[in-house]
Amino acid sequence: MIKQLERDGFEIVRNLIDPGVRIALIHEIEAQVQTVPAAGLRGLARKIRGVHLLAHSLAMQELVTAHLGIGARLVRSILFSKNQATNWHVAWHQDLAIAVRERADSEGYGSWSLKEGVVHVQPPEQVLERMLTVRMHLDPADASNGALSVVPGSHRIGRIRASEAASVAAKMGQQLCEVDAGDALLFKPLILHASRKATAATPRRVVHLEFAAFDLPSPLQWSEAA
Fold this sequence. Notes:
By secondary structure, the chain is of the alpha+beta class.
């Protein structure tokens, strides 16, 4: 699995959490997001205790440590909830921004932004190459409800201009990542990925977790790291 992630930039881990944990997490999230009109929620682990427990569970820590090494910890968490009321298309892109506690100008860091009150910045490629994303699926996901598509191997060619992303995807080929509830999709931030609008009424709720095993250059700090 480690070789697959390094080669292709993604892998699917089946049944990472059991149904009881997943259902309890859904109930806790639903109670929180009833007052949130957007299709997602940032800083999720700080707002939902079950997400914090999931990120620090033995299964998750063993999985992440196997890929990143000792000291791997959560640095960003987001809920993505795609359904009939909140339905959107995501074009081919790489995840180029990280979440930090506050702005502190540093060499190689730029394109600062503020998302839901959280400071974001684009770091050097070397930072992104050492990170890991785990998308924990609370519902089954396929072509009908906006499952993620990826371009295998695209994480190894560095930053790709947004204007060139679609042509790179067409040239290299894409793969739809169909998953069941309880499955996790692991990927490198620099892999090209996209998702289509849902055509089915079934929800697609994803807990998006990002991990790193290193500190940012002082005075920068990860937004969610303990």
